[in-house]
C-alpha cells in the first residue's frame, strides 16, 4: 500500500477537454463534503495520528487543504484578471507546523473549505474554454501553467488528501 500517494501521483491531462473540466469542477465541489464524511467520527487522538511515518497528522492534512485551496482560489483569480501573473508560492511544510493548526478545530477548516469551494466552483462554472487556457507562472518551478492544468492539480490534491485520511482510518481499524 502506497502511504505517500494512495491514489497515485498526479498525472497532468495532456490537453483541455470540456467533459473532463466538468468532472473536475464536480470533484472540487464535493471535496468539503467528502472531507467532512471522512473525518466526522475521528477523535482528537486520532486526528493527531500521522498518515505515514514522518508525515503530517490528519489534523495538519485537513488544515493544509484549507491553506492550499485558499491559495488555489487566489491563483485562479489572478490568472483570470492579470496577464500571465507570477503566483506566490508558500512553504506549505512550515504553514502546517504553525501553532494555530493545533488549536483550531478541524471543523473550522472544513467549513472554510465549504464556503471557499462554493465561491471557487461558481468561478470555475462561469469560465469559458478560453479562460481555462490562461496562464500563470509558478516561480518555484520556473514554469507556466494553464488554469485547466491547475484545476487538474487541485482536483487530484483534494482526493489525494482525503485518501490519506481514509487510508489511515482503514489501516488503524477505526471504522
Structural features:
175 residues, mainly alpha, 8 helices
Structure explained in plain terms:
The protein is mainly alpha-helical and 175 residues long. It has a domain at 70-175: Four Helix Bundle (Hemerythrin (Met), subunit A) (Up-down Bundle). It has eight helices and two strands. The protein has helices at 18-39, 44-47, 58-81, 92-96, 100-103, 106-126, 129-132, 147-171, and strands at 135-138, 143-146. The protein has a two-stranded antiparallel ribbon with strand order 1-2. The chain is globular and about 45 Å long. The two termini are 18 Å apart.
What class, by secondary structure content?
Answer: mainly alpha
- Spatial order of strands in the largest sheet: 1-2
According to CATH, what is the topology of the domain at 70-175? Four Helix Bundle (Hemerythrin (Met), subunit A)
- What's the overall average pLDDT, rounded? 96
The CATH superfamily of the domain at 70-175 is identified as: dinb family like domain
Measure the end-to-end span: 18 Å
Largest sheet: 2 strands, antiparallel
Number of strands: 2
Number of helices: 8
User: What's the CATH C level of the domain at 70-175?
Assistant: Mainly Alpha
Provide the helix percentage: 55-70%
Layout: helices, strands, pairs:
Elements: H1 18-39, H2 44-47, H3 58-81, H4 92-96, H5 100-103, H6 106-126, H7 129-132, E1 135-138, E2 143-146, H8 147-171
Antiparallel strand pairs: 1-2
Amino acid at each position: 500500500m502506497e502511504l505517500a500517494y494512495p491514489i497515485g501521483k498526479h498525472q497532468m491531462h495532456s490537453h483541455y477537454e470540456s467533459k473532463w473540466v466538468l468532472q473536475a469542477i464536480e470533484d472540487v465541489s464535493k471535496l468539503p463534503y467528502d472531507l467532512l464524511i471522512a473525518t466526522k467520527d475521528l477523535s482528537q487522538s486520532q486526528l493527531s495520528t500521522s498518515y505515514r511515518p514522518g508525515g503530517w497528522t490528519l489534523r495538519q492534512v485537513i488544515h493544509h487543504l484549507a491553506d492550499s485551496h485558499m491559495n488555489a482560489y487566489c491563483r485562479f483569480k489572478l490568472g483570470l484578471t492579470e496577464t500571465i501573473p507570477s503566483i506566490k508560492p508558500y512553504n506549505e511544510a512550515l504553514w502546517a507546523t504553525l501553532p494555530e493548526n493545533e488549536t483550531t478545530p478541524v471543523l473550522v477548516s472544513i467549513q472554510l473549505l465549504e464556503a471557499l469551494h462554493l465561491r471557487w466552483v461558481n468561478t470555475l462554472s462561469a469560465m469559458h474554454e478560453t479562460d481555462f487556457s490562461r496562464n500563470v507562472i509558478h516561480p518555484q518551478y520556473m514554469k507556466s501553467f494553464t488554469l485547466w492544468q491547475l484545476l487538474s492539480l487541485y482536483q487530484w490534491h483534494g482526493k489525494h488528501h482525503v485518501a490519506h485520511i481514509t487510508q489511515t482510518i482503514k489501516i488503524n481499524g477505526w471504522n
